[in-house]
Design brief:
It is a single chain. The protein is α+β, with helices and mostly antiparallel strands. It has four domains: 139 residues, no CATH class; 124 residues, no CATH class; 226 residues, Ribosomal Protein S5, domain 2 (2-Layer Sandwich); 141 residues, GHMP kinase, C-terminal domain (Alpha-Beta Plaits), CATH 3.30.70.890. The chain contains 25 helices and 23 strands. The termini are far apart.
Length: 692
């Protein structure tokens, strides 16, 4: 607590904030000032020592210095005499700094402090009573003092100081958006019994930050402390977070009351500290609370959604939207919240036709009945319905935020496009009749298998929202749809980033970018390629279905947990994902297949670093078999299964690769598909009453 003037050549140790007043206005240079815990039989006390950096401790008085000046000069300046420091019977040649009784320990009438040694530095500026007070104190030499140092108290004080500094580091790192890992400090605090102090500091940061992004990271740190306290017992960290005892705190966070929500979480936490199983469950609920705040941070992107008026299609006329799939060529995971708004992201995407067609689509029409008909078709728009659901009451929409509930994505789309107000006092029937004179029928389809890695769900959400807007007499730009899908997926609670909708809703080859800031805003830049290079890509890109469905259910949660822990390898990998995306974009501008292939291979290594275990054994065998024939290859999306895309050295290698894989053991069912860059982008078409 300054201002303090600490010059060069100084060492200050063992001091507390109580020492600040004595140090103010006292210039220090080339001195060693220390506080010590001393035990004299049953009496504990604090003793301060002061020496010069240049002093020789064992040389005789006539040849040595104290406080960097000759002893004779020191005696003259302070009025201290040799008899004050050494017994008369001690030979003068034995007088030295080591055995000089300089340091006050006890006083009969007054408490001693730092000022009782600091006056030795500037004796001319202090009252003459200071010398008398010093003489009246019982003093000890360094030689006498050292055996009395209370080592247990000394180490305890240093431990307390370490964690006091640690708590300040926690505040500095979290509030300053720094990429330092707090995990070593967390583990140390738990091991040394300072977890309560750490939890208190984290509670304070989360409740006072006033920023959903900072608060989310802080709650993740609390989950880490609780997980460390379980010491590897109590079950898996990933799991449900739906205990009703935590519901009130969750509701506060959902309502935007971060401070109140954090306080309620802390109160509830105290009931879950008695066993490893309870600690792990508490950690899960803190991660659930963190996800609420991440959703709120990402939903700031909805301010970039602008919707304008359009002609209302006639009753019964279909609005159809068909979309390409997307290939992520570099940078994926950097678009995933919270990485994308804490670190910044860049992803190179290509919109592609699969086997010559756009595989994802939706169509919507207004109907006279005031209800919502939700229909899922088979693989194409001409297929028969495989699932149908009719919503006539608002209550039928209340599970829109449960991703596995029937029609959840479509329900969320109606709410996010504000065709339906939810929650509302006005019944669904009245809302639909007043605004549209009836209800809506929605059909959706995808030719791609579940877990393909080609961005199906996000692109389908974009198709549904585009068709809903148009059928309701509204129009939204592609940029608005990209941010609208981000908003929808947060409401749906599936999370996810922005690369899928950028890839499928924006035509051709492009790079999407987001800065390390909130509100989250995505900018898309088209990548110009040399004349004829698009056809070259079509001739050299192939899609291989691995036959493996992605099984890594907790993949996203694990990646986010590692990011919040700021593991150095993950932070470095995030940097490399973004730089590799920029290199890939440059290789595409040059039309250099060899460099593009190197970016793909590098990207696959980066994906495996981000999400270990995303390469099934059979997929590894497949990639090994193809490696001599390709410039580069990578599993699409997060990995773990789905589609593998390859950039072949020779053009039009579909049959050749099929023969190679057919002769490779242990691959199971696979299939190879042609892909083409879709330079046209998704289409919105108002049709008649019969879509065929």
């Amino acid at each position: 607590q300054g201002p303090l003037e600490i010059g060069p050549g100084c060492l200050l140790s063992g001091l507390t904030p109580d020492s600040s007043p004595a140090l103010q206005g006292c210039p220090l240079r080339d001195v060693v000032l220390q506080g010590h815990h001393v035990r004299l039989h049953d009496l504990s006390c604090r003793v301060f020592t002061l020496t010069g950096r240049l002093d020789d401790w064992q040389s005789p008085v006539d040849e040595a210095t104290y406080l960097n000046v000759p002893w004779a000069q020191f005696f003259h300046q302070t009025g201290i005499r040799e008899g004050d420091l050494w017994d008369a019977e001690m030979p003068r040649r034995s007088h030295c700094l080591l055995n000089a009784r300089l340091f006050p320990v006890l006083h009969a009438r007054e408490a001693l402090g730092l000022e009782d040694v600091l006056w030795l530095l500037t004796p001319a500026t202090v009252p003459s009573e200071r010398l008398a007070r010093w003489r009246a104190a019982w003093r000890m030499s360094w030689q006498e003092l050292l055996p009395c140092v209370d080592r247990e108290a000394e180490l305890g004080a240093r431990r307390a100081l370490f964690f006091l500094q640690g708590q300040r580091k926690v505040r500095r790192v979290l509030l300053g958006h720094q990429d330092s890992s707090l995990l070593p400090l967390t583990r140390s605090a738990v091991h040394e019994g300072y977890h309560e102090a750490m939890l208190g500091t984290l509670d304070e940061v989360a409740s006072t930050a006033g920023d959903a992004g900072i608060a989310a990271r802080t709650l993740a740190c609390i989950a880490e402390v609780l997980g460390c306290m379980a010491r590897g017992e109590g079950g898996l960290r990933s799991g449900p977070a739906a205990n009703r005892e935590w519901a009130s705190a969750f509701r506060r966070l959902e309502s935007g009351d971060i401070a109140g929500g954090v306080r309620e979480l802390a109160t509830e936490r105290q009931k879950w500290m008695s066993s490893p199983a309870l600690l792990v469950r508490a950690a899960r609920h803190y991660e659930g609370a963190e996800q609420i705040l991440v959703r709120q941070a990402v939903m700031s992107s909805c301010q970039f959604v602008t919707v304008g008026p359009a002609e209302l299609p006639p009753l019964g006329h279909w609005v159809q939207v068909v979309c390409p799939a997307r290939l992520d060529l570099s940078g994926g995971w950097s678009d995933t919240p919270p990485i994308t708004y804490e670190h910044g992201g860049a992803v190179v995407d290509v919109a592609v036709l699969v086997d010559g067609c756009r595989p994802i689509g939706a169509r919507v029409r207004r109907i006279s009945e005031p209800e919502l008909r939700l229909v899922s078709l088979g693989g194409t728009q001409w297929s028969e319905a495989v699932a149908e659901l009719v919503c006539r009451e608002l209550e039928d929409l209340q599970d829109y935020c449960q991703p596995h509930a029937p029609g959840a994505l479509l329900k969320a789309a109606f709410i996010c496009t504000q065709i339906v107000q939810f929650p509302s006092q006005k019944p669904l029937r009245d809302q639909l009749m007043e605004s549209f004179g009836g209800g809506f029928e929605v059909h959706t389809w995808s030719k791609l298998p579940h877990g393909s890695g080609l961005g199906t769900s996000s692109i389908l959400a974009g198709a549904v929202m585009a068709s809903l807007y148009r059928a309701a007499g509204k129009a939204a730009s592609t940029k608005s749809l990209i941010h609208a899908v981000l908003h929808l997926e947060q409401r749906l609670t599936t999370g996810g980033g922005w690369q899928d909708q950028v890839g499928g809703l924006t035509p051709g080859i492009k790079i999407g970018r987001s800065k390390a800031q909130l509100p989250l805003r995505v900018e898309v830049e088209k990548i110009p390629v040399p004349d004829g290079f698009t056809q070259t890509l079509n001739d050299h890109l192939l899609l291989v279905y691995t036959g493996k469905t992605r099984l890594a259910r907790n993949l996203l949660q694990d990646v986010v947990r590692n990011w919040y822990a700021r593991l150095p390898s993950i932070v470095q990998n995030a940097d490399m994902l973004v730089s590799n995306a920029e290199e890939c974009a440059q290789a595409l501008r040059q039309g250099n297949l060899l460099l593009i292939g190197k970016c793909l291979d590098r990207y696959w290594q980066q994906k495996k670093c981000m999400a270990p275990g995303c390469e099934p054994l059979a997929v590894g065998c497949m990639m090994d078999a193809l490696q001599p024939y390709v410039y580069g290859q990578c599993l699409a999306g997060a990995g773990g299964g789905g589609f593998l895309y390859v950039l072949t050295k020779a053009p039009r290698q579909k049959e050749a690769l099929h023969q190679i894989l057919a002769q490779t053991e242990g691959l199971g069912n696979f299939s190879i598909h042609s892909i083409e860059v879709d330079t046209g982008g998704f289409s919105v078409e108002v049709m008649g009453c019969n879509p065929k």
